[in-house]
């Protein structure tokens, strides 16, 4: 009998705390500043490489990538035909352009702009490795966050969303 009484007392103490505990747990699952950094690794059977990116609270997928050996926070954008980089970040990762290189018209959220085509030597997303990936470089001020577009995503075996997680497979 005392076991039941103790169990009921325990429930009465814990139940009022449950909503707050759940709220804290859910908030920790998708912080806007949180970026995906943990890779699942290689599948022993298939040799495939998988990388998971959790959805941020704002509904976007943001991840850390290594571009030419440098860490860069990127926003996944399946609507972007290529990786898009601001000029400053391109310089930081070893892509140096001349003003005359900016001749390709591209659509941005602010209208048409001129971009320069370039090639990224290496892209890493956890265990996923891509070499010689096409990128578009925009002049500083036109793009605030680098975009991980289809020039990289299209080279993967597949990518899909499951339980608010973007899963990339090579």
TrEMBL record:
Taxonomic superkingdom: Bacteria
MF terms in GO: aspartic-type endopeptidase activity
This protein's UniProt keywords: Hydrolase, Protease
EC number(s) recorded for this UniProt protein: 3.4.23.-
Enzyme class: hydrolase
InterPro entries the record matches: Aspartic_peptidase_AS (IPR001969), Clan_AA_Asp_peptidase_C (IPR011969), Peptidase_aspartic_dom_sf (IPR021109), Retropepsin-like_bacterial (IPR034122)
SUPFAM superfamilies the UniProt entry points to: Acid proteases (SSF50630)
BP-aspect Gene Ontology terms: proteolysis
Protein name: TIGR02281 family clan AA aspartic protease
Originating species: Roseibium aggregatum
């Amino acid at each position: 009998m005392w076991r039941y009484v103790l169990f009921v007392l325990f429930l009465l103490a814990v139940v009022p705390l449950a909503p707050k505990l759940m709220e804290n747990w859910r908030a920790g699952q998708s912080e806007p500043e949180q970026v995906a950094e943990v890779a699942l690794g290689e599948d022993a059977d298939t040799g495939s490489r998988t990388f998971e990116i959790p959805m941020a609270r704002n509904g976007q997928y943001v991840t850390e990538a290594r571009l030419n050996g440098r860490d860069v926070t990127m926003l996944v954008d399946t609507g972007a035909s290529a990786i898009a980089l601001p000029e400053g970040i391109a310089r930081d990762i070893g892509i140096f352009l001349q003003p005359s290189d900016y001749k390709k018209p591209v659509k941005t959220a602010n209208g048409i702009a001129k971009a320069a085509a370039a090639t990224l030597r290496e892209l890493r997303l956890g265990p996923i490795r891509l070499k010689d990936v096409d990128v578009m470089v925009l002049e500083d001020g036109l793009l605030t966050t680098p975009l991980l577009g289809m020039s990289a995503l299209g080279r993967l075996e597949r990518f899909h969303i499951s339980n608010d997680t973007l899963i990339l497979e090579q």
